[in-house]
């Protein structure tokens, strides 16, 4: 059995898989400093608010802006958030070949966002979470494996 591969902090092993890792993505005709900036900005439909998130100086500040409920969340957020994340993560790995190679080097290892602060995107710390970010990474890995198979 391939051992589980857990990641979370940018500074730790496989921190490149975190949305906070400093890999810009180009999407919707704009450059986003991290996939987190893109993801958080999509919570809002107002282009001015999106732009404020895009220009946040760190991914943590982008996440704070995205999580600030003084700004109204778009009404359909719950139904679109997984596809938004998929789009951000796929762009990140397609646009940085070093990252694509790192992802492919994990072969068939289960990828787990290991954190007790998030049981939707992460594993909830005890494995009870949905690990949606890990699942999306594994889906992107499958796409890249299929495309690059000789
Ligand atoms: N890595 C990481 C976090 N986790 C990330 O937060 C995002 C989900 O945000 P939300 O849906 O607003 O709760 C998603 O990218 C998830 O991977 N949160 C943090 O505060 N610090 C961090 O280092």
From TrEMBL:
Domain of life where this protein originates: Bacteria
Catalytic reactions of this protein: 5-amino-6-(5-phospho-D-ribosylamino)uracil + H2O = 5,6-diaminouracil + D-ribose 5-phosphate; 2,5-diamino-6-hydroxy-4-(5-phosphoribosylamino)-pyrimidine + H2O = 2,5,6-triamino-4-hydroxypyrimidine + D-ribose 5-phosphate
Gene3D superfamilies: YbiA-like
InterPro entries according to UniProt: NADAR, YbiA-like_sf
Domain NADAR span(s) in chain numbering: 7-144
Pfam families to which the protein is assigned, alphabetical: NADAR (PF08719)
Leader sequence segment: none
NCBIfam families, sorted: ribofla_fusion
Protein's recorded name: NADAR family protein
Phylogenetic lineage: Bacteria, Pseudomonadati, Myxococcota, Polyangia, Polyangiales
